[in-house]
C-alpha cells in the first residue's frame, strides 16, 4: 500500500503544509519516524517529537499552532483520531477471508450456519447453534448448545460462548473471552456452608460489541445479563450476573461490575474500576481509573474519582490536603498549645 | 416444568396469600414479571416493583409487611434466598447427563477412570490421572499427569489442571480456570536479573469448591496451595503459591491473595480485594470490596475496609472527614489567623 | 534424589552447625518439617518454627543469630533465597524431555521448526511461523501466522500467541497467556458510537521473559508493545498496546499498565497496581501493591504508595493521620469553640 500526501489529504479532507507529492508507505510512531512514514500528533505530550521527527508526514489538528519549525509535511485535519482510524484501515491487514469450514472442527449436524462462514480447526459448535452470514470463527473456539450468533461477527482463538447465549451482529471477541459462565450466587446454610443457586438465565450481547482478551461475562441467575449495542470492553474485565451495560459505554481493562448493577449509556469507565452490586449509574458517567463506585449515580454526565468514588474535583482537592495531613495535624497541635497558653 | 402455587408453597413450607391454583411455568425477574412467572423479593431495593409486577406469584419473607396493595399472589417463606436456590433447582436445566467418552478426546491409557464419566471432545487426560465416579468433563479441558480428581466434579470447557494436583469431590470449575501453574518466585541475582525458583509443590482443592471463569490457583513452591472444603471463588481470582483458604470462605471476582497467606474459615472477601503475602486472616473476617489487607487480622469476625484496610466503621468515619478536608484545612487556617490576631 | 548435609553445604558454599552426615531426601516447609527434609528460614516471620521444626536441616543466612536452641542441623549460606533456587533445581522434576511432534497437532507446512522441538496434541502452528531449537510447546497452544519464536522457550497448555509476534530465547509462558490481541483503541463518532482503530502493530518479547497464567499483552496500534529481557509478569496481568517494560522489571499479579506507558528497568511493581497511560516510570521504581501511578516518575529508585501514588513514607504518614481524622475534626471544632469563647 502506497499513497501520496495529496491523495491522503484529499481522502481525509485535510490541508497540506509541505510537499504534496511525497509517497507514504506505512504508518509509524512520531518518535520513531522514518522515510515514507505517515504519523500523527494526537496527545500533546508527544509535541516535542513533532519538531525532530524524521517521518515524511504528520497528521495534526486543523487549529494546531506549532511552536518551532517542522521538517515534516503537515496534513491538517478536523479530527486526528478519526483520521488515524481511517488510516489504519487503509494500511492495515485486509480483513481475514473466509477459509471455509476446517475439516478438523466439530460441528453438530443440527447447527444452522449462514453464508460465507469461516470456522477454524479444533473449534466446536454444539447442537442447535445458529450462526449468521460472514461470521469468522478462529481455532479452538467453543459455542455451546442453542446459542445464536448474528452476522459479521469475529470470534478469535479460544473464545468460549456457553449455551443459550445471544450475540448480535458485527461483534468482535478476543482470545480467551468467556461468555455465559454461571453467576456467583449461593444461599448461606445454617452450618456455614453455601448452597449453589442455579443460574438459569442467559447473556444477551447486542450489535457492534467488542470484548477484550480473557474477559468474562456471566449468565444471569434469572433473565439476562445484557451488553447493549456498541459496548466496548477491554481485557480481563468481569461482568457479573444480571448486569446491564448501556449503549456505547466503554470499559477499560480489569474493571469489575458486580451483580445486577445497571450502567447507563455513553459512560467511560477507567481501568481497574469496581462498581458494587445492585447500583444504577447514570448515562454519561465518567469514572477515573481504579475508583470504586459504591452508591447510585443519579445525575448524568458526572465525573467520579476515589474509593468510595466522589465528585472528581472534590476528590482531587481532598487528596491534595491528604498528602499534607501530617503537617495539618502538627499545626492543629501547635494551635492547641498556643490557645492553652493564651488561656492561662 | 409446571407447578401450582399450592404445590410450590407446600414444597417451600410457605403460606399463600392469593390464588393457590395458579400455574407457575418459569422463574422470572420481579421487574419483568409475566403470566406464569414465579418471582421473589429478596433485596429491599426491588420492593417498588412488588406493587406493579405482572408476575403470577412472588416469594417474600415470612414477616414482610407490604406498604401498598399487591396484585400477585404471595408465598411467604422463612428464607427467600434459600427458596430461590430450591426453585432454580426445580426449574433449572437438568444436570448434564453422562455422554460417555468422546472419541475425539485424548486419554492416556494409564489414566484410571471411574464409573459414569463424561469426557468432551478435544479434552486431554494425561498419564496416571485418576478420576472418580460421575465426573463430567466438557470439551477442550486439560488434566495433567498424575492429578487426582474426586467424584461428581464438573470441569467446564477449557479448564486446565496441571500435573500432580489433587481435587476433591463435587467441585465445579468454570471455563478457563488454571490450577497448578507455577508460583511467582525468583531469586535476585547480582547483575539485576532474576533466577527462577522451581515450584515443586502442588495444589490441593478439597470437596465442594467452586471456581469462577479464568481464575488462577498457583502451585506451591514447596508443599501445597490449599483450598479447603466449601471454598467459593468468583471469576478472575488469583490465588498465589502456598496460600491456604479456609473452609466455606467466599471470595468475589478479581481478588488477589499473595503468596503464603492463610485466610481463615467463613470469611467473605469482596471483589478486587488484595491480601498481601505471608499474612494470617482470622476466621469470619469480612473485607469490603476493593480493600487491601496489609497486616495480620488476629481477631475473628471483624469487618475491614480501605487500603491499607482498617476497621470498617473507622474507615467510614475517616472517609466522611476526608471528603471535607479542603474545608477543614480552611478552618484551620482561619483559626491560625484569628489566634495570631488575638495574640497581637 | 538424596544428598548429605556435607555435600549440600559444599555445593552451596555453606558452613554446617550439626550433623554433616544426615541424608536429605526432599525440600519441605519449616512449619511442616519431617525426617530427611531440608528447609530454610527466609522470611523472619517464620523464625519461631526454627526452634520447633522436625526438619533434618535448615538453610539460614550466614549472620543469623538464633534466640533459642535448635534441634535441626543448620547450613549457613550467603543468600538463602539464591540457595533455595539451586536447591529446588536439584530436587525439582527434571526439565520435560522433547517428546517430538504429536500426531494430533496441526502444523502448517510453511512453518520452520528448529531441532529437538516438542509440540503437544491439539496445538496449532500457522503459516510462516519460525521456532528455534529446543522449544517445548504443550497441548492446545496456538501460534499465529508469521510469529517468530526463539530457542529454549516453553509455552504451557493453552497459550495463545497471535500473528506476527516476536518472542526471544528461554521464555516461559504459563497456561492461558494471550500475546498480541488488539489494543483497545476507538475513535469517538458524532453519534456517540465508537469506530475501531485497527491495531496493525505487534508484540516483541525479548529473552528470558516469564509470563503468568491468563495474562494478556496487547499488540501495538502502530509499532510494538515491548517486554525487555528478563521481564517477569505474574498471573492475570494486563499490558496494553504500545507499552514498554524495561529489563528485569518484575510485575506481580493483576497489575494493569495502560497504553503507551514506558516502565523503566529493574522496577518492582506490586500486585493490583495500575499505571495510567502515556507515562514514564523511571528505572528502579518500586510501587507498593494496589497503588495507582497517575503521573510520570522522573527520579529513579523511588518507592511509591497510594492512589494516586505518592512517596511511600509520605503515604504511610498521611494514612496514619487519615485514620484519626474524626478525632482531628473534633479537636478542630473544640478549638473553634474555645477561641470564640476567648474572643467574646
Automatic annotation (TrEMBL), chains A, B, C:
<dbReference type="InterPro" id="IPR007691">
    <property type="entry name" value="LpxD"/>
</dbReference>
<keyword id="KW-0443">Lipid metabolism</keyword>
<comment type="subunit">
    <text>Homotrimer.</text>
</comment>
<keyword id="KW-0677">Repeat</keyword>
<feature type="domain" description="UDP-3-O-[3-hydroxymyristoyl] glucosamine N-acyltransferase non-repeat region">
    <location>
        <begin position="21"/>
        <end position="89"/>
    </location>
</feature>
<feature type="active site" description="Proton acceptor">
    <location>
        <position position="241"/>
    </location>
</feature>
<dbReference type="InterPro" id="IPR001451">
    <property type="entry name" value="Hexapep"/>
</dbReference>
<keyword id="KW-0441">Lipid A biosynthesis</keyword>
<dbReference type="GO" id="GO:0009245">
    <property type="term" value="P:lipid A biosynthetic process"/>
</dbReference>
<dbReference type="InterPro" id="IPR011004">
    <property type="entry name" value="Trimer_LpxA-like_sf"/>
</dbReference>
<dbReference type="InterPro" id="IPR020573">
    <property type="entry name" value="UDP_GlcNAc_AcTrfase_non-rep"/>
</dbReference>
<dbReference type="Pfam" id="PF04613">
    <property type="entry name" value="LpxD"/>
</dbReference>
<dbReference type="GO" id="GO:0103118">
    <property type="term" value="F:UDP-3-O-[(3R)-3-hydroxyacyl]-glucosamine N-acyltransferase activity"/>
</dbReference>
<keyword id="KW-0808">Transferase</keyword>
<dbReference type="GO" id="GO:0016020">
    <property type="term" value="C:membrane"/>
</dbReference>
<comment type="pathway">
    <text>Bacterial outer membrane biogenesis; LPS lipid A biosynthesis.</text>
</comment>
<protein>
    <recommendedName>
        <fullName>UDP-3-O-acylglucosamine N-acyltransferase</fullName>
        <ecNumber>2.3.1.191</ecNumber>
    </recommendedName>
</protein>
<dbReference type="Pfam" id="PF00132">
    <property type="entry name" value="Hexapep"/>
</dbReference>
<dbReference type="GO" id="GO:0016410">
    <property type="term" value="F:N-acyltransferase activity"/>
</dbReference>
<keyword id="KW-0012">Acyltransferase</keyword>
<keyword id="KW-0444">Lipid biosynthesis</keyword>
<comment type="similarity">
    <text>Belongs to the transferase hexapeptide repeat family. LpxD subfamily.</text>
</comment>
<comment type="function">
    <text>Catalyzes the N-acylation of UDP-3-O-acylglucosamine using 3-hydroxyacyl-ACP as the acyl donor. Is involved in the biosynthesis of lipid A, a phosphorylated glycolipid that anchors the lipopolysaccharide to the outer membrane of the cell.</text>
</comment>
